[in-house]
């Protein structure tokens, strides 16, 4: 990945490597590698290219996300937009998308098509998130669609890429895609819980809450429209810039039954993801994918 980020200018190379060097879970390459076990013999160079395309596309999208969110940190390091400004950060993201496109072209037309469709969904999801739910639209359903496009699409493509590299049959590819899409939702929704429940993550607990970013527990609380929750919702909608105000709302949410209901929803979606794997052959790769579901439900960071 570091080699793929090399540009004609040392300055561009430094910026393009910034988020790569900060680390990350490399979750999408993991799915590419595991999903490649459901077909035949695999060309290792093609497998590496497929994993690179997915992670480079993800990293490129992070540069754009940080601009949209006016983020100061990414993976514990100062964000690119904070260091070099929004315009430069957007262009670096574009540069990495281009690098991903160069790599995917070496794999074949069907890979290019899938990456382009995935990129389209990423952009549409970002636009929908920025615009917000329309009049008469269910905010929770809108949010689920946003994260399906922004997160689920790329994770689904990662699983499918792995299967494609191994020449897996179409039903297997469809099962892997459906699994990846649902896992993407579980991935993001578990993040929503962590924002409220954890004190050991790389970001300050309640960051989304403070910034007014919709998350599963709060959206469920609004949808339930219980008069007993009116005071808590008013506090959630109030100025949470002070650490004291934020801590009070976090404490109230942590004790609220909605957190249990939100956790149950994450677990429900993880079970749906597991069921998508049912047609696939038993073995270490399938066991590992099933464990991914469990890990996402139980993770604390």
UniProtKB/TrEMBL annotation:
Alphabetized SUPFAM superfamilies for the sequence: Terpenoid synthases
PANTHER family reported in the protein's UniProt record: ALL TRANS-POLYPRENYL-DIPHOSPHATE SYNTHASE PDSS1 (PTHR12001:SF69), GERANYLGERANYL PYROPHOSPHATE SYNTHASE (PTHR12001)
Swiss-Prot/TrEMBL keywords: Magnesium, Metal-binding, Transferase
Gene3D superfamilies noted in UniProt: Farnesyl Diphosphate Synthase (1.10.600.10)
Keyword Metal-binding appears in the UniProt entry: yes
Protein name: Polyprenyl synthetase family protein
Protein's UniProt keywords contain Acetylation: no
Organism: Tessaracoccus lacteus
InterPro entries linked: Isoprenoid_synthase_dom_sf (IPR008949), Polyprenyl_synt (IPR000092), Polyprenyl_synt_CS (IPR033749)
Reported cofactor(s): Mg(2+)
Family designation: Belongs to the FPP/GGPP synthase family.
Highest taxon of the lineage: Bacteria
């Amino acid at each position: 990945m570091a080699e793929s980020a090399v540009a004609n200018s040392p300055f561009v190379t430094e910026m393009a490597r910034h988020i790569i060097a900060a680390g990350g879970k490399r979750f999408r390459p993991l799915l590419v590698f595991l999903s490649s076990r459901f077909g035949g013999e695999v060309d290792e160079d093609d497998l590496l290219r497929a994993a690179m395309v997915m992670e480079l596309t993800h990293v490129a999208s992070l540069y754009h996300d940080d601009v949209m969110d006016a983020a100061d940190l990414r993976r514990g390091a100062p964000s690119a937009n904070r260091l070099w400004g929004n315009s430069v950060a957007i262009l670096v993201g574009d540069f990495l998308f281009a690098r991903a496109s160069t790599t995917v072209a070496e794999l074949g037309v069907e890979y290019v098509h899938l990456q382009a469709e995935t990129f389209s969904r990423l952009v549409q999801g970002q636009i929908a998130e920025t615009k917000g739910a329309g009049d008469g639209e269910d905010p929770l359903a809108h949010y689920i669609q946003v994260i399906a496009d922004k997160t689920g699409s790329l994770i689904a493509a990662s699983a499918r890429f792995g299967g494609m590299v191994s020449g897996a049959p179409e039903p297997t590819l469809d099962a892997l895609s459906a699994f990846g899409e649902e896992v993407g939702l579980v991935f993001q929704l578990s993040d929503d819980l962590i924002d409220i429940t954890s004190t050991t993550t790389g970001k300050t607990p309640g960051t989304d809450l403070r910034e007014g970013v919709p998350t599963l527990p709060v959206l469920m609380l609004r949808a339930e429209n219980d008069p007993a929750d009116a005071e808590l919702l008013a506090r959630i909608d109030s100025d949470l810039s002070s650490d004291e105000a934020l801590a009070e709302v976090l404490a109230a949410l942590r004790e609220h039954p909605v957190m249990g209901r939100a956790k149950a929803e994450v677990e429900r979606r993880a079970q749906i993801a597991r069921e998508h794997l049912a047609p696939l052959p038993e073995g270490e790769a399938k066991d590992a994918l099933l464990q991914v579901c469990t890990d996402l439900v139980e993770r604390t960071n």
